[in-house]
């Protein structure tokens, strides 16, 4: 396969201790263009010795370096540098992400600008977040609650939205004073390399950010290593269980943003056409490769067929094509094994008795690339495999319910609890149903999430939150300091 020039520097090296470092082996990883099935670029594949060097650099930078000892405002200056660097490289994100994961280029460009703003947001918290709180102890004297950096963080990044999921981890971690090892996805390492390039360009102190690309076995070296204080992971629930079990052996800290099988509850007063357009459009976002995707559509039995017909009409009009074509509304899946996975679930849905209404195959006009049609099943039972397991592709299941209470019951009948939505014209009713849904986010009349507030899941959809002030807390340890006198610079309690 012919390699295409990718807009990243030093793909044959790792970014460790502030420099581009030669790998310990000649092992490499091929990154394949999801739209053409051709080789995009190659990166070095980390071995245990490379991971050890990255962890050592991060540990040394935290224990002996200046980073945790800078003021929050000083660290915020570097975050603003990341923001400026990312804005300057938005066009590079627009080249890399669509080829790695199939996302539309228009979405990639907007995301790059948006995530630059996330760096600015966390920089702003340097002056507004209470890293110290003075208290009056119950027995008198002086009391201080301080929030200090948790230490060395291992950030494990998935392939579907690597830029955003790097930013949501490293921005709060760096503000807190942590040092970080970013473990990039083998399928989508490009954005991690861009972050390393920005770190180098802004003069980030050595060892504060380290970037390696590795597969699962070497990634476990990061999780197991006692020099790593916390793991921040986004990925499948199965992998999250494994990480939590490994960290449990040494009581390591973790945040886990895991899978979902999110429900859209369509109440009887919701407009069918508007609801269908919202749901179909959202499912084409990133070709359904979104953990929070609303894939279980729950509607009362009397409105089931009308909603199915409207959804099928919307799906039939979706333009599937190259992520670089401005006319495309949905690109390819990220890789061949992901397309195999989606096609396997479609076959299972048919075998278990769900009615295939739209899609179900590969677009006939596209003979290359990992494309699949947006697919719709009707009369799905919530016990069907396609209603229980995360497919991670553009496949919707419409599930009939007897009434509103039954719809809420079905929505909550899942091991997941990442996202949900309620469709209705009655905002008060929407709020009531939203409070009944066991989900980390509940949108009203659409697919909604906001990392500026908080994002994360109930149940097996994860532990902890990313984004907003809540997303800073997991990178901080709370310490209570008690004394008999008030130190200089603090006020006496009356």
Automatic annotation (TrEMBL):
Residues 20-481 form the Aldehyde dehydrogenase domain. Transmembrane segments: none annotated. The active site is at 257. Keywords: Oxidoreductase. PROSITE patterns: ALDEHYDE_DEHYDR_GLU. It comes from the Bacteria. Pfam families: Aldedh (PF00171). Coiled coil: none annotated. One of its GO terms (molecular function) is oxidoreductase activity, acting on the aldehyde or oxo group of donors, NAD or NADP as acceptor. InterPro entries: Ald_DH/histidinol_DH, Ald_DH_C, Ald_DH_CS_GLU, Ald_DH_N, Aldehyde_DH_dom. The keyword Oxidoreductase applies. Belongs to the aldehyde dehydrogenase family. This is Aldehyde dehydrogenase.
């Amino acid at each position: 396969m012919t390699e295409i020039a990718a807009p990243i520097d030093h793909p044959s090296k790792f970014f460790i201790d502030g420099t581009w470092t030669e790998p310990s082996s000649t092992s490499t990883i091929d990154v394949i263009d999801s739209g053409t099935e051709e080789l995009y670029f190659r990166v070095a594949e980390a071995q245990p010795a490379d991971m050890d060097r990255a962890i050592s650099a991060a540990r040394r930078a935290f224990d002996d370096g200046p980073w945790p000892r800078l003021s929050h405002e000083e660290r915020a200056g570097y975050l603003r540098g990341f923001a400026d660097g990312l804005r300057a490289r938005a066009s590079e994100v627009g080249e890399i992400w669509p080829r790695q994961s199939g996302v539309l280029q228009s979405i990639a460009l907007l995301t790059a600008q948006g995530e630059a703003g996330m760096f600015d947001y966390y920089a702003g918290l340097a002056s507004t977040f209470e890293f110290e709180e003075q208290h009056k102890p119950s027995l008198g004297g002086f009391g201080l609650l301080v929030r200090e950096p948790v230490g060395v963080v291992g950030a494990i990044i998935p392939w579907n939205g690597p830029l955003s999921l790097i930013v949501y981890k490293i921005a709060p971690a760096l503000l807190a004073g942590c040092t970080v090892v970013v473990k990039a996805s083998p399928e989508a390492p490009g954005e991690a390399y861009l972050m390393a390039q920005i770190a180098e360009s802004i003069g980030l102190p050595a060892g504060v950010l380290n970037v390696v690309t590795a597969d699962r076995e070497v990634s476990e070296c990061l999780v197991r290593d006692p020099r790593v204080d916390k793991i921040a992971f986004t990925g499948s629930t199965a992998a999250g269980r494994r990480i939590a079990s490994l960290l449990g052996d040494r009581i390591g800290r973790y945040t886990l943003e895991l899978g979902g099988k999110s429900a859209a509850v369509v109440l009887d007063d919701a407009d069918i056409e508007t609801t269908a357009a919202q749901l179909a459009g959202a499912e084409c976002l990133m070709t359904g490769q979104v953990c929070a995707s609303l894939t279980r559509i729950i509607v009362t039995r009397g409105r089931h067929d009308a909603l199915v017909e409207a959804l099928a009409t919307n799906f039939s009009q979706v333009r599937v094509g190259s992520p670089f074509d401005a006319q495309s509304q949905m690109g390819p899946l990220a890789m061949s094994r992901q397309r195999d996975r989606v096609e396997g679930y479609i076959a299972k849905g048919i075998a278990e008795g769900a009615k295939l209404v739209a899609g179900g195959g590969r677009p006939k006009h596209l003979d290359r690339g990992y494309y699949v049609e947006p697919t719709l099943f009707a009369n799905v039972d919530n016990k069907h495999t396609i209603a229980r397991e995360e497919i991670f592709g553009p496949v919707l299941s419409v599930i009939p319910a007897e009434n509103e209470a039954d719809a809420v019951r079905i929505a909550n009948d899942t091991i997941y609890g990442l996202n949900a939505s309620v469709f209705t014209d009655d905002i008060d009713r929407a709020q009531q149903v939203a409070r009944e849904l066991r989900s980390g986010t509940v949108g009203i009349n659409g697919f909604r999430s906001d990392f500026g507030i908080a994002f994360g899941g109930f149940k097996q959809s994860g532990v902890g939150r990313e984004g907003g002030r809540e997303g800073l807390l997991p990178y901080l340890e709370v310490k209570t300091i008690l004394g008999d006198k008030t130190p200089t610079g603090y006020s006496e309690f009356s």
